[in-house]
Structure formats: C-alpha cells, structure tokens
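This part of the workshop introduces the protein records we will be handling. An example says more than a description, so a record of this kind follows:
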Amino acid sequence: MSKIHNLSKHHLQSINKALHYIELHLESDLSLEIVSKIAHYSPFHFHRIFKAFTNETLNQYISRKRIEKASAVLLRKTDVTISELSTRYGFTSNSSFTRAFKKFYGVSPSDFRRQGHGKYSKIRQVKSKTGQPSTNFEAYVCDTNQNTKHMQSHIEVTSLDAIHTIGTSCMGVHNLSSTFQNVMTWAGPKGLLRQPDFKMATIYYDSFKITAPDKVRMRACLLVDNPIKTDGDMSLITINKGLHIIAHHEINVGEFERVWTELFMWMNSNGYKMRNEPVFEIYHNDFNTHPEKKCIVDLHVPIV
C-alpha cells in the first residue's frame, strides 16, 4: 500500500487545501509556517504528511512548481522578461533563477524560450538530479501558423456560468483511477449518482509536457448543480465563470494527447490566450459501456 493510501481522510483534505493554496499563491511568500497554518497543522507534522503525499519536501515542491510555471510563461508570453520572472517567483537574482532553471531543464531560460518557438520544439527535459524524465514541451509551442484544417473535432468558444465540482486531488497518473473510485464511493451513499446524466471530470493543475507524469497534480471530481457540504478528503472547488474553448470529442483512450495538442494549436492559430486557470475534461459516458470503448468528452480551456 502506498504512502498516500496510508494517509487519513483528514490528512488528505488538509493536503488538498494546502496544494490549492500553493497553486493560487506561487508569486507570494510560501514559507512552511504559512502553508502549514493553512492546512491547520504544526510545521513539523505538516512537513511529514506533505512529503508522504507528494514525495517531495514543501520547498522542493514549491521550487519545482515555480520553475514549471515560469517555463510556461516563457513559451506563451514573449513580452515577459527573464528578470521579471525571476522577481515574480521569488528568486534572489537572475543568476539564481537561471541556475535553478538550468538544473531542472538542462538549458538556460533564454535558450528554453528561443528553442521552444521553432516549428515544433525539439527541446526535451534532461534527466537531472531532480529525477525528471525526458518529456516534450507544452503542445502550444507549435508554430501558430500550423494548418489545423485536418482536426477531427467540433470546437466552440462560449461563455459558461460557474461549474461546481466535488472531489479530491492526486499526484501522478497511476493514482487517478483509484482517486475516481474514491469519489464514486463517497458520492454513492449521498445520492449524487442517482441522476442518469451525472458527469465526472478531471482538472489538470500541471501539464504532462512540462511536468513528469508521476508528479502531475490532478483532481478527480463530480459535477454538481450547487455547492454542497463535503466531508472526509472531499472538497468543493468552483471553476470560475467566463469564456471557454470547448472541444467535443468521441475518442479512444489513447487519443487524448493528440486532441489536446490539436486544441492548443487551434487556440494559438485563432489568437486566443489562456486564463491563469487549469484546463479540464468533462466526461459524458463510461467508455467501458461504449460499443467501441470510446470516451465522449469535452476538453475545456479557460481563456481571457
């Protein structure tokens, strides 16, 4: 049994609260004292349970998240300088930011940005002391002039009201299936699965193109009409109202990477910019019951 499964529901709820706070405050002071207070633990006990959940110390996790966030900004926003990123994410100088970045990605921030804007990025993460395996960059580094007429998807841009979700987070793709099962087990006795059209969703707080698969943080959740009281390790998260690009698909499980890549290409080709909010998938069926084992899914990208 993994360390995560050994944590109590109370521990998991506290860690989820801390992770959500960190996600929203990467540009702020995130000391052990501040984050442990958010989780309602002493610094000593919080440090222990946080590492059990993430397999990283708090400082390691925050440093990685800040560098990954900076790498995404480098690729998407060419007007933001490296000096600005260094200051924004709490590094003491440009040189300290560059050292940390190069240790993680194997290239300097300027080289990362320059090489990441080719027709298709050939840069890959190095297997550094962080243990990061090689992986491609975010799909939207593709040339924005790429032809997207071949796409087999129905894409629309529309304004949505707030979407309420109940669920819990996990770290790593290997934990997502069991996390969904935990959500279903919790929701069943509460009558939340009685509606024949209930929908599940995955919210992605990290990109598989920037973050190692075993460190990607995801949230497995159930959509609900209105905010309701939660308990145990379940929590309520509301996706903000606003504009979304939505891609409607009926695809095999192995096609998700391709359709996400195409969606980001379409977004860039049409001049849209992501909001600083996570992307997510909403599922309209159980692919196991589909005659061709296909997922009927909507891919959502919040945009400004």
About this structure: Residues 117-151 have pLDDT under 50 and may be disordered. The two ends are 43 Å apart (CA to CA).
